[in-house]
Amino acid sequence: MNESKDDINTAIEKARNNFTPLKQTGKAQYGNYHTMQDIMTAVGDALTAQGVFMSFETKVETSGAMPLDIFVAKLIHVESNTKRHSEIILKDMNKGPQGTGGSITYMRRYTLQLMLNLSPDANTEDDGDWTSTGKRRSIN
Length: 140
Fold this sequence. Notes:
Blueprint: H1 8-16, E1 26-28, E2 31-33, H2 36-49, E3 52-61, E4 68-77, E5 82-89, H3 96-115, H4 129-133
Helix pairs in contact: 1-2
């Protein structure tokens, strides 16, 4: 009998069956948002049970004219050593240590939601209207 190993995609899909509802306990001037704690409460135990490890790091790319700060997120299935990863340039987001820290915190939350296909709720899914115009689209 040939026993197949799960890979990262299978492990995440198995974990999704045990994700709990995603809450929004973060408060900001524009409304509520999902904190990293909210995300980890919803997905952390289910991912751990499937052997999925999360890693976040930054690196500097120096091959171009200007050095670029890059945020790297990885989901690693320990047993099969298969991975999902995402790299995002932090260009123009890091205005000193506080700006860099804020950018990293923001990217950790949003990249993890994206990599796990977590569905936002209607109040936070505004197609970028708030970010680009400062006006919220009415939700029917």
